[in-house]
Amino acid sequence: MSIECRFHIVRSDFVLDVDLLLPSTGVTAIFGPSGSGKTTFLRALAGLENNEGYLKVGDVIWQDEKHFVPTHRRSIGYVFQEASLFEQLNVKDNIEYGFKRSIDADQSVMHRAIILLQIEHLLERRTSELSGGERQRVAIARALSLGPKMLLMDEPLASLDEQHKKEILPFLERLHAELEIPMIYVTHSVDEVAHLADQLILLDEGRVIGNGKISEVLTRLDLSLAHGERAASLIQAKVGEHDEHYNLTTIDFSGGQFFVPRKQLPVGCDVRLRVEARDVSLTVERQSDTSILNILPAIVDEISDENDAQVIVRLKVGDDLLLSCVTKKSADLLQLQQGKKIYAQIKSVALL
Amino acid sequence: MLNEYDLSALIVTLKLASISTLILLIIGTPLAWWLANSKWKLKPLVEALIALPLILPPTVLGFYLLISLGPHGVVGGAMQWLGAQPLAFTFAGLVIGSVIYSMPFVVQPLQNAFAAIGTRPMEVAATLRATPMDRFFTVAMPLARTGFVTAAVLGFAHTVGEFGVVLMIGGNIPGETQVLSIAIYDHVEALEYGNAHILAGGLLLASFIMLVVVYSLNRHFSLLQRSDR
Amino acid sequence: MKTFSSTLRSVPIVFGLLFISAASIADEIHIAVASNFAGVMKTLVSEFEDNTEHRVILIAGSTGKHYAQIVNGAPFDLFFAADVKRPELLDTQGLIEPSSRFTYAIGRLVLWSPRDDYVDSSGVVVDEVDYHYLAIANPKLAPYGRAAKEVIESRGLWEALQGKLVRGENIAQTYQFVASGNASLGFVAFSQILKSGKVIKGSYWKVPEELYSPIEQQAVLLKNGDVARDFLAYIKSDEALEIIESFGYGVKGVSD
Question: Quick check: pTM over 0.80?
């Protein structure tokens, strides 16, 4: 089921102009600064904006010049920034409000949503008795119980404090792992993108400036994400083996393996690694007299100025991409250029 | 304590206030909803028209009603053309007068209550597959319940207290158009201060109680809502 | 402190203002007049003011309201009521200057309709009962209403007409009911359908005075003062009586 959309939305303060083919599975993050039009785009998908455009979901046209399927007849689940629970109903009635009205819903989907978000014990509560995190979990369960063909989320963590964000994030990751339907996730947090997204669409001033697999968009040197303090690359990998003696775990990926301090994860389990550009240094020869364990052969793919003194280098490691931030002086000494074979030394790796 | 005339005036008044309030809620609800959500540029015109009875002396409204209900007036002429009974000096005429006269007291609390809901709950309901009508009844109305209580009580109380309009188009027919406020006026004019006291005091007390109900309900609901946040 | 001292300084000015207005009150009088007579009164007052240095302030309103205001201390010098009852009450309560009560005008009842050729010259139209509403003033409150009731009763129709009768709270309202066409016809004051000595429009029956007890309107002196007494003297003058008559009222001692 593909999602094809073209929107042209003119507001007094900005214009949204997008033409996209959204993937039919996985999490697509819509990322951009505030005012970039990402919420407007999501609302247009839901039919909440009054706009011109074209939207085709699978074989069904939801919007063109002649048709406009109203929001209540679109098979979507929508989670707003604030939980927006109905205060006059208790938790169970909130969830059943949509469930009763949705033709796609069935009892088992609702039960699965309730169990997935661990809200069984909250069902009889009044909404006023819930914490911020609990409210958002109920809101997500309410949207999932509809049995929607796609899940739209508008910064579901933005209104929560750090503690509640940490409480919800694991639930979203479970959703990511278990959900068969596409999820469109609007956010302005790089952290959330790193944790959840498979696909990343970058919006700026109403235009798409980047669109693709997350690992590629994050390392595109012409985009802002690959620059700055927090520039990092993402690598999809699997748990290899555990070294009982040194208490290390090896993580396998297309370009080799990483050693990380021992993790309680089953062998073969999918993991996501995040490698920050400033933690990657480069050598021409493979160093043997170093404390760094993670040394991988790489090929220079692209080089771009970071600032007056530094450059950012994109490396190909197997099929994966890494970013490295080095001084211009080092770049000259190592005679870095596209296609050059080189070694990347990685000081630290974060398991997401 | 009440004589036959006063009792019949009381019954006419309660009947008039109940029917007018009911009609006002039926007309006022969609009107208030429209006013709360419309972005039409001539909306202030409609709002001003509805609010007119708030500032006009009731006798002005009564006077124009009397003129327009008469055979040379717009309404009266139309009624005559349709072969219907003229409306002046009838209970139905009073209901029409009361509905116009008490309109702002019903529409404004409802409009405020609807506006306070905002668009979000309605959008949420739409994403939960509720049709526009469904959303209105299951989301907007329950959320605006304070507005409905306020509107109903104010509309009722204001109609009970109505004088100028009834004076102009009522004709003081016992059992038909003679209402409490007119009965009080008659008693005062006829120097029957004892009877006037019974009615006026009763009306004062009843109005006070109704307003206490409105304010305590508002307080109750706003406390409830605050605890939700 | 500055505001305080400036307040103190303004005190004499305030007192001065009070004196000036108190002095001007000396040749100014307040007259409460029944609404039905207000039009005539204005004419009389302007005549009076033209011939004297005095000023008259008229307060038109319902006689019941004026009565209640007087009992509660309203500062009227003269009270021109719409009936006999209220002046009589004030008299017995000792709220007026002794023996100042007198009849200043006698109302005349007419049966009137704005439609031409509708009311016949002997009021038979009342008996025929094929009209929509017959307006009268509230008999309990207004002397014109009491008179109308007497006329209807004398024809033995009072019970039969109950469903057809609409009551105005006063004679002015009764006139409005008829003039607006909402009531087909009504018993109103002759003075109401006259303008510059001519009947404005429609058809009417001047009800013979023997069919109802006289609609006497009485006046009383509430506060003894030169101006008020001057005004009373003027009201009783031939010149004033002529004006009152020209507005459709009868006057005592002058035969019609």
Answer: no
